[in-house]
Amino acid sequence: MPHDALPAAQALDAHIDGVGVLGPGLSNWEQAQDVLCDDAPHVAQRTVLPVPQILPAAERRRATAVIKLTLASGLAAVAHAGLNAANLATVFTSSGGDGRNCHEICAALAGSDRLLSPTRFHNSVHNAASGYWGIATGAMAPSAVLCAFDASFAAGLLEALVQVALLRQPVLLLAYDTHYPEPLHRVRPIPDSFGVALVLAPQAGTRSLARLSLDPTAPFTELPADTLSDATLEALRCAIPAARALPLLRALARRETAHIVLDNQPGQQLALQLTPC
Q1: Which domains are present in the chain?
Q2: DSSP type of residue 132
Q3: Which spans in 63-187 are helix H?
Q4: pTM of this prediction?
Q5: Which of 31, 108, 189, 240 is at a distance of 20 to 30 A from 46, taking alpha carbons?
Q6: pLDDT tens profile 209-228
């Protein structure tokens, strides 16, 4: 939806019913809450991606870091919300997709035979994560797949809020980025994998954590994005585009009523209001 088509006097809103997180030093939402509430230190350990046992054996062998990351964070959010993944519309958003797979394809094309593995090829499309999600969960609901470089989390969140408003049904947002190896790392220095998933619902329910809405007075602002006081968490927020979600996750973990500004397009940050349920 174009920004100028958004209602001027009415905010897009939804209720957050489930959360999944997986990233450096953040192994799940429960542990992440302790870190974001300053009840435990953030130790920036490498992200451990679990084997996606939900996939059939053949697809499991082909699963890349992106697939493992989105399945782990997405299924955790769905379980947290107490819903059936097969019934949920989804919005997938990533700043660039699968960095490792991109590297391997470039290396093959730079070689003498220039032959691509069929697995590499079918994992190269930007909607690969959505396809594997459908295979794993049996989901046949609508799925949108976005890319907006460093603004991908904000773009995905805005799309998910619009989908909730249009469908009047819960929508699962999955934001994710993975490591780029050298030499791509020199120009796209994403150091590790980070994924966050949110189940957004049109109405409050027994599992709702908070109401999230665009600021009805100024949904887009030139104000700077919120930062984090913890140096390692702020470094993570800046290093991985999907981790731009951390100020929102911090307020959600602390059950704060908060006005939150998230990184979006330059000069047009995303302004949100969060109210605990």
Answers
A1: 3-205 (3.40.47.10)
A2: H
A3: 65-81, 99-110, 118-122, 128-137, 152-167
A4: 0.93
A5: 108
A6: 999 999 877 889 999 999 99
